[in-house]
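Please predict the structure of the following assembly.
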Amino acid sequence: MTESDPILETRGLEKYFDQNTSLIDTLLRREDEKVQAIDGVSLALHSNESQGVIGESGCGKTTLLKTLIGLYTPTGGEIRFRGNDISEFDRSDWKEFRRNVQIIFQDPFDSLDPKLTIREALQEPLKIHNISNQEERIRNVLEQVELNPPEKYLDRFPNQMSGGELQRVSIARALILEPEVILADEPVSMLDVSTQASILNLLSELTEDLDVSMFYISHDLSTVSYVCDRINVMYLGRIVESAPTTQLLDDPQHPYSQALIDAVPIPDPNYGRGYTSLEGDVQNPVGIGEGCRFRERCPERMDICEKTPEFIDMESMDAHQVACHLHYDHPTDEGTEDENTDEIRAKTEVST
Amino acid sequence: MSRIRYVLSRSVQTVALLFLILTFLFFFFRMLPGSYLDILAFEGASEASVEALREKWGLNEPLYVQYYRYVINFVTGDVGMSLQYRVPVWEFVRMKIFNSFILVGPAITCSYILGIAVGGYTGSQRGSKSEKYGLIPFIMTGSFPSFITAIIAIIVFAGWLNIVPTSGMFGFDNMYTGDEFAWWRAYFSADFAIHYALPFLTVVARYTYLPALVMRTNVVEVMGQDFFFYHRMTGLPGGKRLRRLINHAILPVVTLYPISMTRAIGGLIVIEMVFNWPGIGYTLVQAVFARDFPVVQFVFFLVAAFVVVSNFVVDILYGYIDPRVSIDSS
Amino acid sequence: MSEPLLEAEDLTIQYRTENGMLTAVSDASFTIESGEYFGLVGESGCGKSTIAKGILGGLDDNGKITSGKVRYKGTEIQDYDEEKFNEELRWEEVSWIPQGSMNSLDPLQRISEQATMIAQVHTDLSKEEAVSRIREMFDIVGLPQERVTDYPHQFSGGMQQRAIIALALFLRPSLLIADEPTTALDVIMQDQVFKYLNEIKQGGDIGMILITHDISLVFESCDRMSVMHAGQVSEVGPVDKIYEEPHHPYTILLKEAFPDIRYPNRELGVIEGNPPQNMGEVDYCTFVDRCPWAVSECDQHAPALEPVDSEGSHPVACVRRDEVLEKYRAENDQTAQVEEER
C-alpha cells in the first residue's frame, strides 16, 4: 500500500433499512418501502487527513458512521480498510480493524460507563487487545489530552467530572490503542463554547502530531471547517459535494451546500447575511426513489433533475466533486453531441 | 383505512384463538382419566345401563367425530348437556354466570375507581407522608389470599358485629327467588344487598392495590414531564391542569382493567366457596367433583373467552383514546 | 419616555439545596424596551434560563427570588403568586418558548385543542375564533393551516418548534421569552425560524428575550443584549456596541471562542477553567478564576454594573472596565489579524 492509497474508503456504499410489514401486506404482495439511509456513498480517507461529513438530521451521517465501524452490515457497495474489503474479514482481521479504527461519541456522559473509574475505562481497550505496560500508556494518553496531572483524574468517576474533561477522556480512550483512524460523531455539540474551542484545538493537534486520520461527522459547519481539511456534504443518504474546506466555503457548487453555508449565523451584527430562501423540511426518506433528492427544494431545479445526477469530478477545480446536473454535460436525445447545462436550462425555461 | 384493517385482522385473530381454545378444551377433557360414567358405575349402576348411556351419548364414537359434532353444535348454540342434571348446560349455567358477573363487575369497577382516586391523590402529594404511606392498607389487603380476607370479614362483620349474614346470596325467606317472572326483583331487595356487601367488599379490598399503585406512579411521572410544566406556564389554572394530568395518567390503568377482571374471575372460585355465592366458580367446583365435563368445559371456555375478548376490546379502544398509538405508519 | 417593557433590578434567585443556598442569579439588572429583541447570552449554568423561569413564576419548588425587583410595564411582579401570574401575566402578556419543544406539547391534545384551551382560560374568544387565530399563526410560521388539527407526534421536530412558536404568539403577547428556541434544530430550520421571528418583529409591537448560548444568533437578530457568567450580568448594551467594543473580559474572550465561518482558520480563543457554583451570597466576581486580567480587588466584592459611556447605555460589571479592552487589543494585535484574513 502506497502513501497515496486511502486508509479507509467506501465505494458505492449502501445501507437500506426495511420498514415493518404486516402479514396482510405480505399476502397482498405489497412492496415494502425501504429507507435508503445510505445510497451510493464513495469516500476515501488518506493517512494524516481529517475529513468532515456534514449534513442535517436524517441525512444518514450517523448511519454512515455506524456502518463504517462495523455496527451495521452494508446492503450494497464495499468498505475497504488498507485496501482490503472488510466483508471478507475473519475474526483476527476484525480485531485488527477494531484496534485501528476508533470512535468518539457525542455525549461523554452516555459513552463512558458510569461505574468504571477513568483508569478502568482506559484499561478496558488495553485488556481486550492484550497490550502490556498499561499504567504507562494510560498516563501518557491522559497527558496527551491535557488532563494534567493524570493522577488527579485516574480514580475519579464520570459523574465527578465536567463535560469537557470527560470528552477528553473519550478522546484518550480512542487514542490509547494508537489507531490509524478516528471516527468522531459530533464530539463537541454537547459542550459549552469555551470548552468546544479547547477540544477542537486538541483534535486538530492530535491529527497532525500523531499520524491519525479522522472522519468528523457533524451538522455544524463552523466546527467542521475548523478541524477538517476536506468536507463532504451529505443530503438524504448521498454525498452531494466533496471538496477541500476553503474551496467549499468560498465557492460551493451544489445548491444545497450553498444553502447550508448561507444559513450559518455569523457573529457580526453588521454583516447583513440575509435569511435562507429554502422552504419546507427535509423529505421523508422512506421510499424515496430515483432522481436528485434535493430537487423538491432546489432553487435551480430543471427537468433533468428527475434523473439521479452522477458524482463527478469538476474539471475546473482541483479535487472537487459534485453531484448536480448543473455541472456536467449531458448527452442529448439524438445521442450525438453533448448538451451543456446552459442549453438544458434554456430548454427548461422555455417549457415553463 | 389501516385502522379498519387492524380491527379486522384482530377480530380474525380473536375468533381463531377462541376456536383453538375450544378445541384444546375438548381434547383435554376427553383425555382426563375418570368419567361420569365411572361415577355412575361406582354408585351402583349396572354395566348394561352404563353401556346404554355410553351409546346414547355417542361416547363410543371416535373422538374426531365427537369433536366435529361438538363444534357444529357449539356454533349453533347447543353447548352440551349437563351430565349431572340432564339439562342443557346453558340453562344450567346461565344464572350462575349472571350471579358471578353481578359480583365481579361492579366490584372491580369500584376498585378501579377507588384505586385511581387514591393513587391519583397520593401521587400528587409529592414527597409527603400520604404519598409514601397512603397505599399501605390497600397493599396489605391486596396481599392476603382472598379467602383469608373473606374469612376475617365474615368473622368481624357477620360474627362480632352481626350486621350482615355469613353467607349465601339470598335469605331463605326472600319472596322473589322462586318466582319465574319476577325473579329479577330479588336482586333489588335489601336482602340481596346485605348478602352482597361482604363478598363485594372482599373483592374490592383484594384488587384495589393494582390501579392505585399504577396510578400513583403515572401521576408522579406525568407531573415531571415537560408538557405538564408547559401547561403551567401557559397559565392553566389548577383544575384544568388536574384534568390534563388525569387524562394522561389514566391510560395505562385502563389497559389493566380487563386484566384485573379476569384475575378476579379466576379467584372467584375461592370467594364463592367461602361465601356460598352461587356463581360459576362454585358451579365449576361442583361440576369437577361430579366429572360433569360438559359443564366444566363450557365454564372454562367462558372464562378463556372473556379474557380473549376483553383484551381485544382494550386493544381496539386504546387506539382511539391514545392518539400516539398509530395503527398506520404516517 | 415610555416605561420599559421589562426591567430587572438587582435580581437574585436562589435554590435551597442539601448543601445550602445555591445562587443561580446574583444582582442581575437589565431593561428591555417595547418591541425590542433582547439577547441573553451565556454558557450552561449562567442563570439565563433561571431568569426566564423567574419572570414567569416557573421556578422549581426550591427556587425563589430572594431579592431584587422585576417590573413588567411598570408593575412589580416578583412577588406574584401562582394565581396572579395566571391572571395577569401568563400568555396574554408574556409567553414562553421552551427549549426542546418536542416534549412540551401535550401529546394527547391536537394543537387546535391546546390553543382553544389556553385561549379560553385567558380571553373571551370563542372556540372558532381561537382556532382561526392559531391558523393565522401557523401561516406566519410557515406551517400548513390544515395541520392545526394534528397531534404533536405527527409533526417533525422542526415543525413542532414552529407550532410552539405559533402557540406562543397567537394571543398577541407583548413579550416573548424564547429559551434556546433553535438549539435542537438544524441550521437551515434555525434560519427559517429566525426569518419568521424577524417578520413578526416587523409586523408588531412585540418584544423578545432570546436566551441562547450562541452569540451569533444574538448578533444577527437582536437589538440589545446582555452577557451573563455564573449568575452575574457581565455586560449590557446595544448589539453593535458590544460587538465593536466589548468591555468585560468574559465578553471579549467569549467572542473569540466562537468559530466564524468566514475565517475558518482563525484560531479559536480558549477560556480556562469552569464557571463556579455559587453558594450563598456572591461577593466576588464569578469570572475571577478564569480571567487573565484579574486583580486582587476582583475577589473582594461583586463588581457593580456601571456604564463605560456617557449615555449610560452600556453598563459593564468589571472593576477594570476602562482598561481591559485596550490591554487585550495591545496583547493581540487584533486589527491586523482581521485584516489579514480579509
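Chain B touches chain C through 21 residues (CB under 8 Å). The CA atoms of residues 247 and 321 of chain B lie 10 Å apart.
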